[in-house]
Write a structure and sequence with these properties.
Length: 421
């Protein structure tokens, strides 16, 4: 095992390969406060990539209803239990040690790679191979909320529920491959058929080398590689790399969002590429909306960073969910992230307008001051909303989109006929 630095954990960790970093890294932010659970992203991916024979049960993008849903079922609770059984009580964060190279503090527990070494198993990472029955329902328990713990015979809460957390709750969790910095699938593959592209960090499977051993499925904690029983090889999300490369004529052959990103009607998704330093840290670039949300405002958090893969999928946590549940999923910055989202800074308000503002990938932005819309008090503190203009720019510096915080209102012409017949 080599020793690599994982900034999400705030420390060095063990990984089978020496650290090597792309110049640019594919990454995304999902705002879970906005997700509709409509599955439009799921079907956009399905109709583009996984409609062939043997792919019937493949869903590279899926939307789960937490806390009960999962694809495959129980994927996260099973991995968490495996690690807990190996090192009981060790999965503890020390947020007091937060630093620029450790923004969430230091994780003192065992990653999936370190847990395998501790357990003495002959694998690169701990994991399990889900049985076929757990792959059958990509949206099992959809809209299933936690139960009301009331009096016998009561089936609903007579007093309702309020923030900061709800007594009955659920939320939607959209997922695709995180294209991790230290992918477990890459570590696990005995054929070295899985690799991370140097130009954008997208993780792909060389299907001419794959022999369908399914080690990638077993050891990826997010269960995003999938087995094709017809071709007998593994497949996974490819991050729509032809679009990311700028080969889609629809947008004029510039870097373009993936199909799942560009189809989202709830505007919960923002996708871009983070520019990395030679040591794998993110280049300090506050003009990047992605950098601002992850490293400046820290309102977007990685999914299960304690697994140790350094995922490049980030989430703005849902504000109504009990904090211990979210702490387990997103790490110790959950309370701060939710507080910043509920009373967003002027800069964050502007950046949130760029979510799904264009199919073209936005790399940098500029905010232009606008007039005051209104002022109020949030959690006892004054807060104001301004009608700022935000401009999104592409990789080449060309303007892509220009939007305002206040959406324009269009009044239908009085002479407009509702039916043209």
């Amino acid at each position: 095992m080599a020793t690599v630095y994982n900034w999400q954990l705030g420390r060095n960790m063990s990984y089978p390969y020496n650290a090597a970093f792309p110049q640019w890294q594919f990454a995304f932010v999902f705002n879970l406060n906005r997700c509709l659970g409509c599955q439009t992203c799921t079907m956009a991916c399905k109709s583009t990539w996984t409609f062939a024979r043997g792919q019937e049960q493949m869903w590279w993008n899926n939307v789960e209803t937490k806390p009960y849903g999962g694809f495959p079922q129980h994927w996260d609770t099973k991995i968490l239990k495996i690690i807990e059984d190996i090192a009981p009580g060790s999965a503890v964060w020390n947020p007091a040690l937060a630093a620029p190279n450790a923004p969430y503090g230091v994780f003192n527990g065992y990653t999936i790679f370190e847990a395998a070494a501790r357990a003495g198993i002959n694998e690169q990472a701990v994991g399990y191979l889900p049985p076929d029955k757990e792959w059958r329902f990509p949206n099992i328990y959809e809209d299933a909320a936690t139960g009301y713990a009331g009096k016998p015979g009561e089936f609903s809460n007579p007093t309702g529920t309020t923030l900061p957390t709800h007594s009955q709750w659920f939320f939607y969790l959209p997922r695709l491959c995180n294209h991790c910095q230290y992918p477990a699938c890459v570590a696990a593959c005995p054929r070295k058929a899985i690799y991370k592209r140097p130009e954008d960090g997208i993780v792909l499977i060389d299907q001419s080398r794959c022999r369908g051993y399914r080690k990638c499925i077993e050891q990826c904690p997010y269960k995003k590689p999938m087995y094709n029983p017809y071709t007998r090889i593994s497949e996974k999300c490819i991050a729509c790399y032809p679009r990311v490369e700028g080969k889609d004529p629809l947008t004029g052959n510039v870097p373009t969002e993936t199909r799942c990103m560009s189809s989202c009607p709830g505007k919960i998704r923002y996708q871009s590429l983070a520019q990395l330093n030679a040591d794998g840290t993110w280049l300090n670039n506050p003009a990047s909306p992605l950098y601002y949300m992850v490293h400046v405002e820290k309102v977007a958090l990685p999914l299960y960073p304690q697994f140790g893969t350094q995922p490049n999928g980030y989430y703005i946590p849902p504000r109504w969910v009990p904090r211990p549940y979210l702490l387990q999923m997103f790490g110790p910055e959950v309370d701060s992230a939710i507080a910043k989202y509920m009373a967003p800074s002027r800069e964050l308000v502007a950046i949130l307008q760029l979510f799904r503002a264009s199919q073209k990938i936005i790399f940098t932005y500029k905010r232009i001051d606008g007039p005051l819309l209104y002022s109020t008090t949030i959690n006892g503190q004054p807060w104001s909303l301004y009608n700022d203009t935000v401009i999104g720019y592409g990789k080449d510096g060309a303007e892509i989109v220009r939007v305002t915080v206040e959406e324009p209102v269009h009044t239908r012409d009085a002479n407009y006929y509702y039916n043209s017949i």
